[in-house]
Amino acid sequence: MVDSSFSWASFMLALVKPKIFVNGQRVPDARWGQTHVPVGPGQYHVRVVTPWLFDMGQAEIQVPVGQGPGSKVYYRSPAVFFFKGAIGWEPQKTPGLILTLLPGAVTAVLFLLVFVLILVA
Predict the structure, then answer these.
(1) How many C-alpha atoms does 10 have within 13 Å on its Cβ side?
(2) CB distance 79 to 96 below 8 Å
(3) Alpha helix (H) ranges present in the chain?
(4) pLDDT for 23-47, tens place per residue?
């Protein structure tokens, strides 16, 4: 099971679907959220990318699958196109999120500074 997601700051990614590859073979019908990949017991190389203008946010992991319910990995697409994605055994944080929030924070501080200067003058 591959649980893929993206940040609210990258809401435009809802227009595309992640590409999931297992041992180099593309998984059909991959989507945001949980994508079940039927495989037998063994060791698998899982690679996930987010298609936009080009494939971005590549992340890969080796996944051992034993008898029973299988394994679950979490993929998180980056907020900025030149960052790698994050993949692991627990839900991942969004790579590059601070870079998307920083311009808004700087704008808010400048706006507040101008407002304070107007009140003082």
Answers:
(1) 25
(2) yes
(3) 97-120
(4) 999 999 999 999 999 999 999 999 9
Strands 73-76 and 2-5, bridge-based pairing: parallel
- Pair 7, 79: CB distance under 8 Å: yes
Tokens of 71: 């394994």
Cα torsion angle, 55, 12, 3, 89, sign:
positive
Beta bridge partners of 3: 34, 74
**Reduced to 3 DSSP states, what percent helix, strand and coil does the chain have, rounded to the nearest 5?**
25, 35, 40
Determine the pLDDT at residue 56. Answer: 93
- Tokens encoding 6: 């993206």
pLDDT at 98 over 80: no
pLDDT at 57: 93
Instruction: Note the pLDDT of residue 102.
Output: 75
CA-CA distance, 11 to 32, in Å (whole number)? 12
In 3D space, the residue among 71, 70, 77, 72 whose CA is nearest the CA of residue 48 turns out to be: 77
Q: Is the pLDDT reported for residue 88 higher than 90?
A: yes
